[in-house]
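Deliverable D2.4 — example input (structure tokens):
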């Protein structure tokens, strides 16, 4: 899991919460404001998440797993009559 991506989404969500950075529309009802901010969040996320993922991909804290070793298939014992 990319923890930087999780942090990016959390910060983006907080910043776009109505009343933190902006409130649009100013005279809208609570539901209208929430819906507009949800659309703004979705649009910003849509156009930025790939770039943020690419920038943070090198910061992964987990080590890549090694390729599992596989044994060659063994032949079943020969049958005797």
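Example output (designed residues):
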């Amino acid at each position: 899991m990319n923890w930087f991506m999780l942090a990016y989404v959390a910060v983006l969500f907080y910043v776009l919460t109505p009343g933190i950075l902006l409130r649009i529309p100013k005279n809208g009802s609570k539901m209208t404001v929430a819906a507009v901010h949800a659309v703004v969040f979705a649009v910003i996320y849509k156009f930025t998440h790939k770039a943020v993922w690419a920038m943070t991909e090198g910061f992964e804290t987990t080590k890549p797993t090694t390729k599992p070793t596989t044994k060659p298939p063994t032949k079943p014992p020969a049958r005797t009559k």
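Helices lie at 3-15, 30-56.
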